[in-house]
Write a structure and sequence with these properties.
Layout (H helix, E strand, L loop, with lengths): L2 H25 L13 H7 L10 E13 H4 L7 E13 L2 E5 L5 H7 L6 E2 L1 H13 L2 E3 L5 H8 L4 H5 L3 E3 H6 L17 E3 L5 E4 L2 E5 L8 E6 L5 E6 L5 H5 L6 H7 L6 H16 L5 E4 L3 H10 L2 E3 L7
Parallel strand pairs: 1-13, 3-5, 6-7, 11-12
Antiparallel strand pairs: 1-2, 1-4, 2-3, 8-9, 9-10, 10-11
Amino acid sequence: MGWLGRIGIALLVLIVIAGGGYWYLLADGEVPEATSYKADIAAWRALVAGDTAALPSEIRVEVVGRDSIPFGIAQAGGGYKPYVMARTAFQLNGPAGSVVIDSGMDKEIAAAAQRGDDAFYDQAAYGRVIAAMGNASRVVVTHEHPDHIAGVARFPVPKRLAERLTLTSKQFEGLRLFAAGGVVPAELANADIRGLDAPERLAPGVVMIPASGHTPGSVMFYVKLADGREVLFLGDVAWTISNIQIPVARPRLVQDYVMKPPESRALVAEQLRALHDLYLAEGGPEMIPSHDEDHLNTLILTGLVKTQFAIEAP
């Protein structure tokens, strides 16, 4: 074989290796056909069956920040079209008061977390989240990443927050990463800190569901509204609703090398399969990923979600 032939074979080998690497790191988002993760909506409903008179009546959202990434980062094989990552917090309001889900992040942390040229941060929105947290009946987070938990770690009056705060033990451990100076305010140790081995009722119409995988302390929240509608807040189990609809996971490049600590690919894939099956089931809940701005805008247009938190007097 001549030298041109050897070069040709070498190039072919490089192409195969590169193609295999692309598939493995960026294109493979396969989830299993069956799952051991239980998305047991009947059990969630049973936990709040007695809450009829006190169910929340509305959902509100604050977008504290946003930036964009290639869609292929949010969904394996998704390509390079831009995908807007909204940094959100949600508020459930009803006769029993309000529940705030996720706390946003202050400007300092946002500057490190949102590095793109198109990054946007809304200081006024973050201020409304902090104000609402101080007056809420219950404050919770979906997991221990900065755009979800940093507002808890840096809340200006920790004693006031602690009496209305519920965290899992893993979420509480994660607070130190975002607390000022790395020191968690001692008052926050008085919060309602749960092991959460199974779904638990959190407040009227609200169930906290363990979903370890994206982070060790990841949870979801099932909500039954007064008008009968049901909603499932996914946190970051999915970054886009199409992760659930197809279903397909984030690429390994993100799960194994970008996320610190790495995401559990196997656990998240099982959750995506269970949520996909629930999504297809008749009468299933509306699902809300934390970061999918296009999907969120659709829910705002339909009236399920309202913009801007309602701030009550203390």
